[in-house]
Amino acid sequence: MPPPPPPPLGLRLRLSLLPPHPIAPSIRHAFCSPSVVSCHLSVRPLAQRRGGRPRPLCAARGEAEAEGFAWPDGSEEELRRLLELLPRELSRRVETHPELPALVEVVMDLGRPPLARFPSGDFLLSQRPISFDDLRHATSHSQVGDFGADNRAGISRTLHRISAIRNRKGVIVGLTCRVGRAVPGSANLLQDLVKDGGSLLLIGPPGVGKTTVIREIARMLADDYKKRVMIVDTSNEIGGDGDIPHPGIGNARRLQVPNQDMQHKVLIEAVENHMPQAIVIDEIGTKLEAMAASTIAQRGIQLVATAHGVTIENLIMNPSLEMLVGGIQSVTLGDEEANRRGVQKTVLERKGPSTFTCAAEIVSKKELRVHRSLEATVDALLAGKLPNFEIRKLGSKGSMQEVSVQKEQSHLGIYDATEFGSDSLRNARRSLDSAFSLDSAEGHIVRSDGADSSFNLYAYGNLVCT
User: Fold this and answer.
1) CB 361 within 8 A of CB 208
2) pTM higher than 0.90 for the full model?
């Protein structure tokens, strides 16, 4: 009698776009016998839209997460609406990029190949130059709003910005489609300053993330601390395009500015008509706006604003914005006072109180330099001394790392460079990293290409003495 057939063997196959966990050596040895035949499966993670059009965004999600790029809530659908402005072959190329969640902007200039910009660099989308039809397809889309006097438009209920380049006849010959995102937790490094109720000024060069941080601060003030918040939104970058603001600002209210020249008037209108406890404004750039901000701060309203610059010194040297730090005046001292201070008879001093209580210089999306007393910082800089500030960083797991930097009195400039030997610098960096558990500051160190093996350490405000 033949033996009974073996029981049916059920196999369950699980496919994942994420890298599998490593298998222990003991388990691997138990299952990897010569009788087991191994095979390689090739999976193409490409979903399909209705009508047969590829939809690689969902497939790219797994690849992006595996590469360490996360999708904020709701940002995937908003990004899809921006990519719909591009020709189909260009949008497909963008969607298949592994850094899709971190897309910065798409540049389309007439007669040139289109580019997509990512944190890792520029990505060529096509060798075919952009034509007038491509530009017309993007600007005539039903989702795109009207271009204002600043040549900016947006997509309703999103934070994206479409900026146009025109020729002398006013015809659009170039577009910059910049991606806007609401990033929860982007203002965690400044949470204590926001909670204290003082006015806060954010300084940083373009593209460093000032608008993203100030948007999160507006949400934090309205939702977490239950304050009446008014946003003066000049280019609709904080609250998004359209009449209904983006949910990224929480319960904060938004005042749109019809013309950039009227921003200072809308600031005063917000105070007089809506009784806010806090006002948020992006990009103070003119003397009239600085005067309006000073008036608001004197009325006891918490003011949160941004300004272009790299350091506090840039504001001091800017005649249009020096009022934000109290104004600068030249003072002639008497002989006795000049001898007591040990300075020349003519010195620069702060004219009056600063508009803002504290300030933060945004170095990168994960590093800030915080000045808790803006007036003390300005006074120290005018006296030729280095002020006290804090370096705050986001750790690898999102935790905040803080270093309080206390400086000696010195007449060195903020950007003076000090040379060190390679051994002494390496030991100093190792000591600092172990003491504060900070990420490596390799970007602050410039290696010499000459014959000597010395280094140049560019100290951002902190004096290092040998």
Assistant:
1) no
2) no
Residues 348 and 294 in one domain: yes
Residues 309-349: tens digit of each pLDDT: 899 999 999 999 999 999 898 888 888 888 887 778 788 88
The alpha carbon torsion through 240, 244, 247, 250 (nearest 10 deg) reads: 110
Asked if 453 contacts 447 with a C-beta cutoff of 8 angstroms, the reply is no
Domain boundary residue, one of 178, 213, 232: 178
Q: Are residues 239 and 284 in the same domain?
A: yes
* Tens-place pLDDT, residues 105-138: 999 999 999 999 998 999 999 999 999 999 999 9
380 shares a domain with 233: yes
Q: For the segment 147-178, what is each residue's pLDDT rounded down to a tens digit?
A: 988 899 999 889 999 999 999 999 999 999 99
pLDDT at 404: 60
| Residue 184 CA: distances (Å) to CA of 102, 154, 204, 447 | 15, 21, 20, 37
Range of the domain at 428: 417-458
Q: Which residues pair with 456 in a beta bridge?
A: 419, 446
Report yes or no on 103 lying in a domain. yes
Confidence of residue 397 (pLDDT cuts 50, 70, 90): low
Which residues make beta-bridge pairs with 256? Answer: 233
Same domain, 392 and 436: no
Instruction: Confirm whether 40 is domain-assigned.
Output: no
The pair phi, psi for residue 153, each rounded to 5°, is: -140, 170
Task: Report the distance separating Cα 44 and Cα 335, nearest Å.
Answer: 81
- Strand order, beta sheet including 253-256: 253-256, 229-233, 278-281, 302-308, 200-204, 358-364, 367-371, 389-394, 400-405
Task: Among 158, 178, 198, identify where a domain stops.
Answer: 178
The pLDDT value recorded for residue 98 is 92
Domain shared by 394 and 433, yes or no? no
- What distances in angstroms separate CA 200 from CA 18, 219, 394, one per listed residue? 42, 15, 20
Instruction: For residue 203, give the H/E element and its range.
Output: strand 200-204
> Do 255 and 229 share a domain, yes or no?
yes
| 426 located within any domain | yes
133-153, pLDDT tens digit by residue?
999 999 998 889 889 888 999
Look at the chain and count its residues: 466
**Count of domains in the chain?**
3
